[in-house]
Design goal:
alpha/beta, Nucleotidyltransferase, domain 5, 2 domains, 5-stranded mixed β-sheet, 11 helices, 10 strands
């Protein structure tokens, strides 16, 4: 089954062709980083306009690269939630038009479910059940993946996402946007015990709930204090201490959840899964616990349409299709 898939939830326009949920024939991505860098973050209206400008071209390019024609496509999938509403609407409306024109089913896909499915593309042997930590600029949640479309949230951030913590910390350190990679690169030159940063906990709710707002604020306050007093700021040490704090908050909860559920497989997904400290800590923890770790290659950690096509295949098998009245949503439960 060939699925033409679209992803436009934030600042990457992506179109892919995926076969049977596991094989990527083409995955075209246009990044808008250069458009938003000057503003220090994503500007929703600029993002939506850019999606409009390139999505048709990317669709043609994906079909050409995959070596297929429009008549070969069996279904169309798209991210319909969550994300920047104007940006998501571009992908949804283009996908609806494509499905209608081709006379094929339309498959709505939750963005975070797509990130989880990126692991299916990288690891054909991976099958549910498993625990997956989904970490990105907009989402941080620990998910019990009982089946390809049967999932429940074990815990999630109550405020900022882990990626947002990295981005805002990078901004105050003068590292630019997006901040994940600059923070990661800088941290490799620093002492991860240079600063004693907090590991916030959450009262009530799930024991796996998280909070990154206080950690972000601690970094911002340290940077502002150094600027105001003229005291030196060990930026590599602060970056390393931040990466250590975030990793410890994520890895411990994930390992505990897997042990409680009796799962042998642990997956990590999303843009923040590219962080080298988090990847290394998960590898060490899984090796110690005798668990098998699945983390996508870097090209599949960020937003892409291949992951939407992968999850779209399983949503289709479960009968989850939509009509021309499909809408886009800025927020939606997993």
């Amino acid at each position: 089954m060939l699925i033409l898939s679209f992803e436009s939830s934030c600042d990457e326009t992506a179109v892919a062709v995926v076969e049977d949920g596991r094989r990527v024939l083409a995955d075209e991505i246009f990044s808008q980083v250069a458009l938003h860098e000057i503003y220090g973050g994503v500007v929703p209206e600029i993002a939506a306009r850019s999606h409009l400008e390139v999505i048709s071209l990317l669709a043609d390019r994906a079909l050409e690269k995959a070596g297929v024609t429009r008549r070969d496509i069996d279904a169309v999938a798209c991210t319909y939630a969550p994300g920047l509403i104007g940006a998501v609407l571009v992908g949804v409306n283009f996908a609806k038009s494509a499905a209608l024109a081709l006379g094929v089913p339309l498959i709505p896909v939750h963005h975070v479910r797509g990130h989880i499915a990126a692991n299916y593309l990288a690891y054909p042997e991976l099958e549910p059940p498993f625990v997956c930590l989904a970490i990105s600029g907009g989402n941080t949640m620990l998910v019990d993946v009982r089946g390809y479309t049967d999932m429940s949230i074990l815990g999630q951030t109550r405020d900022d996402a882990a990626g947002e913590c990295f981005d805002k910390s990078a901004r105050v350190l003068g590292l630019g946007y997006p901040g994940g990679k600059p923070i990661d690169d800088l941290s490799k030159r620093g002492d991860d015990r240079a600063y004693d940063l907090p590991r916030p906990t959450v009262n009530g709710g799930s024991p796996y709930d998280m909070s990154f707002s206080g950690l972000k604020t601690a970094v911002v306050n340290l940077a502002h204090h150094a600027e105001q007093t003229g005291e030196p700021l060990d930026k590599p040490g602060l970056a390393a201490s931040l990466c250590r704090a975030v990793s410890e908050m994520l890895v411990g909860r994930t390992m505990d959840a897997a042990a409680r559920l009796g799962y042998e497989n642990i997956a990590v997904a999303g843009g923040v899964a590219a962080n080298s400290r988090i990847r290394a800590d998960f590898e060490a923890a899984c090796q110690k616990a005798g668990k098998t770790l699945f983390v996508p290659p870097l090209r599949l950690c960020g937003d892409n349409a291949a992951m939407i096509g992968a999850q779209g295949y399983y949503e289709y098998l479960a009968g989850h299709t939509a009509g021309s009245d499909l809408n886009a949503y800025a927020t939606m439960e997993l």
